[in-house]
Amino acid sequence: xxxxxxxxxxxxxxxxxxxxxxxxxxxxxxxxxxxxxxxxxxxxxxxxxxxxxxxxxxxxxxxxxxxxxxxxxxxxxxxxxxxxxxxxxxxxxxxxxxxxxxxxxxxxxxxxxxxxxxxxxxxxxxxxxxxxxxxxxxxxxxxxxxxxxxxxxxxxxxxxxxxxxxxxxxxxxxxxxxxxxxxxxxxxxxxxxxxxxxxxxxxxxxxxxxxxxxxxxxxxxxxxxxxxxxxxxxxxxxxxxxxxxxxxxxxxxxxxxxxxxxxxxxxxxxxxxxxxxxxxxxxxxxxxxxxxxxxxxxxxxxxxxxxxxxxxxxxxxxxxxxxxxxxxxxxxxxxxxxxxxxxxxxxxxxxxxxxxxxxxxxxxxxxxxxxxxxxxxxxxxxxxxxxxxxxxxxxxxxxxxxxxxxxxxxxxxxxxxxxxxxxxxxxxxxxxxxxxxxxxxxxxx
Length: 445
Description:
Helix 2 packs across helix 4. The chain has helices at residues 12-24, 28-46, 48-56, 94-123, 193-203, 205-209, 238-243, 248-256, 271-278, 305-309, 314-323, 355-363, 369-373, 376-380, 387-399, 401-404, 421-431; strands spanning 59-65, 72-78, 87-88, 129-138, 141-145, 150-153, 169-180, 183-189, 212-220, 224-231, 261-266, 286-289, 295-300, 326-331, 338-340, 439-442. Strand 2 and strand 3 form a beta hairpin. Strands 4-5-6-8-7 form a 5-stranded mixed barrel. Strands 9-10-11-16 form a 4-stranded mixed beta sheet, with helices on both faces. Strands 12-13-14-15 form a 4-stranded mixed beta sheet. It has 4 domains: 12-122, NusA, N-terminal domain (N Utilization Substance Protein A, Chain:P, domain 4); 125-190, CATH 2.40.50.140; 192-277 and 419-445, K homology (KH) domain (GMP Synthetase, Chain A, domain 3); 282-411, 2-Layer Sandwich (GMP Synthetase, Chain A, domain 3). Helices cover 39% and strands 22% of the residues. By secondary structure, the chain is of the alpha+beta class. The two termini are 44 Å apart.
């Protein structure tokens, strides 16, 4: 919104003020104040002796500036004295002398005012999705051109397996406004779960219009997302609306997320039903909640244990986060079980390692289970990892062994099979089978 107060452009000076105010979306008064400050700064620099005498007398310098003609006078006087008692101290030819010095001060002030106006505009748009272009890299930060301003994408807001190329276009979420040593910055995100919801709102008219609502999102950015949806309108299938004919709608979201797998689940107030759908593609044989409903032990057939856990523990971790309970998965045969809360930052957090050991591994990019299992020699060579720590890691991995047998490609959902996107689209085209009412899994090879 333009909050400038334009002057009537009767002179060249006022016309220039109006043009700057309009182009930069800043008030005319801010520009006038910048000109006054620049004139005072120029006087203090070019007439240092006179300025020092004025300061010693305890007086201050002010500027009378005509906003129409641009004519000005420098005046000095006591701070509490009326304006008529101020004395004109304008040196001969001062306007010409001050031009270069004033120019830099004015430009700096205008830039700061413009940035403040831009920050204020984007502050009202937090949570929106915008299409930006990668402009440059600033250390580990990615600078994204988002239109009137620049967005900063710090490492924690990036997706680990994405590579950001200069001049490439991508959808980002306006996540936050943060203070930094460079002033306030607009933070954009590719890893925020709200990005997925915003993409569905953009691609699915029912979500954008409010007849289908996103009830919850659990996301491991770059890998997999589980999303629950519900309908506010009778006769509207929330899962089918999000998938679209032949999967075209969800595929558009997947493409924006560079192939991230998406599970679309119909929301239910029944926690048992919701949990079963969230743990798909595995079948749940039995569920036992504790007294306060904060933890549940899920029993699955032994041949589906790895499906329930998911590669790297992703499936059960996202299910725990989505439903809001701590989940322990066990097979229907003797098995110690795997426990997750849904709050793990890295896969190795599910091992329950000592904080010191965990920090060493994270700092050296050992964040996935397979990083440890395939490179124990590399772990052993890390400073701070002694024999005792290595033995502990090996024991934790042994207890985690059901997960390590996870197949590279997940089995189809049962009882309503859903293949990878390309296969799924072909299958739907041939058989025209209805979408499973509780859950739909879409992924990209």
